[in-house]
Design brief:
Radius of gyration: 21 Å
Bound molecules: zinc ion
CATH topology of the largest domain: Dehydroquinate synthase-like, alpha domain
Structural class: alpha/beta
Order of helices and strands: EEEEHEHEHEHEEEEHHHHHHHHHHHH
């Protein structure tokens, strides 16, 4: 399958103009055997450096793209942080023009950052269908201990070789499935925000994301039988999600209440007392079940009583996040999006909100898919005690200043 990404750029019926940096995505078996052809088709020229970790470099089924320089990082304790990026930048020959990431999300984030830092072209070669970050412009970095999304560069070209991707351990693909099914909640949150505040929804981006999510929902189980179509569908969903974020210029279509839950757990606020080694998409999968359950529970109410907005209690915020994280949390919520929302606006939109929620699969259906795949599906599975659930639902929206139903829930009388 080829995705000629350039067609997604330009003027749109939503009234905006969408920017698209990625030219071409290829999702095929043995795609790496034709790497040179795709580089030519995408018009990418110049001296290359390919970056791997040792495991990926030695993978038997990997046809390594030709590159003048290769940098191979030790996989132990490898994170997208100031240490790994400094190592790559120090080793990088000064006349390199094209950086190729060969690997998973971490290698991609490291290389994406270095490409931005040196103003180089970036090429993506994902080796597992594990997350939707391959095609996006932002990198999830941990800088001196703080989690940070940094604006970097999108790939000119993505070469996703299904012969490599289908040999990756199933839990990596399951993580990709979790990251994508979360879009049902994210898309609902986007529509709900539109009903309440009039925030623009681009129907084109919305339907790109919805179709990609449906495609993964319908095909994911085939991965259990090693069906290449299943891997193709999940990879397609992940790449389209990245392209949709590029079009939008933000993660709005891809990240709502379910991602807030995952990000809260990743940030490890002091008073929450959690530490999870689960992958990003595994946490999103669990977050999707929790958010779906809460949204469907709220939608059972024919009417809601909404209280006036009250600002976040700063003393509570400080205690919850702890001294180190508090300044970041305070800054994020300084101009809280909820402040301009009136009780009347939520009450007036309630019928529409209930209708929007009917498009989110029920929590039991999501759980069933994840269980069938053998994927993590409970808080316990991702290393978080069940007792934390209520606090996670209440606190998770504070991780990101974005209007979601999870955030509006603060104003809804329980
Ligand atoms: Zn548009
Ligand atoms: Zn995600």
């Amino acid at each position: 399958m080829r995705i000629d990404a350039e067609v997604y750029g330009g003027k749109c019926a939503c009234g905006g103009e969408h920017h698209m940096a990625t030219r071409l995505c290829v999702i095929e078996e043995d795609a790496l055997a034709s790497f040179e052809t795709y580089m030519t088709q995408a018009g990418v020229r110049g001296k290359r450096c390919a970056v791997y970790d040792t495991h990926t470099y030695q993978a038997k089924n990997l046809c390594r793209p030709a590159a003048e320089q290769e940098i191979i990082l030790a996989p132990e304790g490898l994170h997208a942080n100031e240490v790994s990026t400094a190592e790559v930048l120090a080793k990088l020959e000064p006349d390199v023009e094209v950086l190729i990431a060969v690997g998973g999300g971490t290698i991609h984030d490291i290389v994406r950052y270095c490409a931005k830092n040196r103003d180089l072209l970036f090429i993506s070669v994902p080796t597992a269908a594990s997350c939707d970050g391959f095609c996006s412009t932002v990198a999830a970095m941990t800088w001196e201990g703080y989690k940070n999304t940094m604006n970097c560069v999108a790939p000119e070209l993505v070469v996703a070789d299904l012969s490599v991707i289908k040999e990756a351990p199933l839990y990596l693909t399951n993580s990709g499935v979790g990251d994508i099914i979360g879009k049902y909640v994210a898309l609902a949150d986007w529509r709900i925000a539109h009903e309440v505040t009039g925030e623009t929804v681009c129907e084109r981006i919305y339907s790109i994301m919805k179709d990609a999510t449906d495609c993964v929902w319908e095909n994911a189980l085939g991965a259990l039988e090693g069906k290449v179509e299943a891997y193709e569908a999940v990879t397609y969903g992940l790449l389209m999600s990245g392209l949709a974020m590029q079009m939008m210029g933000s993660s709005r279509p891809a990240s709502g209440g379910e991602h807030h839950i995952s990000h809260l757990i990743e940030t490890e606020p002091v008073a929450l007392g959690v530490h999870s080694n689960a992958l990003h998409g595994e946490k999103v999968g669990v977050g999707t079940i929790l958010a779906s359950a809460e949204y469907h529970r709220l939608a059972e109410r024919k009417t809601v009583e909404v209280l006036p907005y009250s600002p976040i209690d700063q003393e509570w915020l400080r205690e919850f996040f702890g001294e180190e994280l508090y300044p970041v949390a305070k800054r994020e919520n300084a101009k809280e999006c909820l402040a301009s929302v009136t009780p009347e606006a939520i009450e007036a939109a309630w019928d529409e909100i209930r209708e929007i929620i009917t498009h989110i699969p029920a929590p039991q259906e999501i759980e069933q898919l994840l269980v069938s795949l053998g994927a993590k599906h409970t808080l316990k599975d991702i290393g978080v005690e069940d007792e934390k659930q209520a606090l996670i639902l209440d606190a998770s929206p504070l991780i990101r200043n974005r209007l979601t139903l999870m955030r509006m829930r603060r104003m809804i009388r329980r």
